[in-house]
From TrEMBL:
Residues 81-297 form the Alpha/beta hydrolase fold-3 domain. InterPro entries: AB_hydrolase_3 (IPR013094), AB_hydrolase_fold (IPR029058), GDXG_lipolytic_enzyme (IPR050300). This is Alpha/beta hydrolase fold-3 domain-containing protein. PANTHER family: AB HYDROLASE SUPERFAMILY PROTEIN C4A8.06C, ALPHA_BETA HYDROLASE FOLD-3 DOMAIN-CONTAINING PROTEIN-RELATED. It comes from Fusarium falciforme. Pfam families: Abhydrolase_3 (PF07859). It comes from the Eukaryota. GO terms for molecular function: hydrolase activity. Keywords: Hydrolase.
Amino acid sequence: MSRSYAKSWLEVEETMGVRPVLRGNAEETRGQFDGLISMLEPQYPAPPTTVRAEDGTIDAIKYRIFTPAAAKQGISLPLGVYYHPGGFVIGKSFTDDVLCRTIAEKTGSIVVSVEYRLAPEHKAPAQLEDALKTLEWAYDNATQLGGDPKKIYTIGTSAGAGLAICVARKVALGQSQVGLDVIKGVVALAPYTLHNRYIPEAYRSTHQSYVENRDGVPMIDLASLDAFFDDASLDPKDEDYFAALDQDHHKLLPPTYVATCGIDPLRDDGKVLAESLKTSGVSVKTDHYDGLPHCFWVFPGLPESQTFMENTVNGAKWILGKM
């Protein structure tokens, strides 16, 4: 299939000498991801001194908390709970260190990045359980962290973006230990919201990215998604994990910011969810990156990566403005 890639992305591939894609079993994809990050690491800027990072654990769940250095004693800050990408198979609490630091610095938020349990060692619902437990902990400890328990939002990328939405849904349905309205917003970056083995009739006319970006695309393809979801033993009809399925309760979700990538099998996962939320009366803000693959912003040399960072900060600020 002919695709129109951004010129900047093709230059990245030319420099690398390969089209990067994460595919294979868990051990293989983890190795591929580690190799990619090791190659890119020298290109990342030094961590800003304007944000403090501290590691901790909640029972066995590791986390890293990012706090703006300018935070003043007695001033409560918004608190974002961040879920990393990696198909539930890859990733750590520091995987998106730059993104979390940027959000913390530019929005004046405290950001807690969660190292949830990974598949295939831990099957579903382990990831969602850890994601929800950390949200509950953040709410219970918001004051001690310097955060405002009335200004909590979830953030995530890819698999983590799906978790950010699913946690908000669980809370809104009363399936948590916190109040129904505790989560005030969601920042969902290239989210998964469906399984390609089950697309409800309501979405079939508009969801085409599983076909259009099935294979031959960078970063992840349909085989990657299948492997990730199978490693977690996910049921394609599980409304707890696939947020676009439960349309009846979309009206309960808080204001949501959604970013999508043009050359990404998950492109329409984000788009159909955003449209369903809008139809349900939820405030939605979106950004779309045409000609670019899933999670392109991990490549710091791309000019669009800077645009993505700016837009994500603005998306988070938009959420904060709704509180």
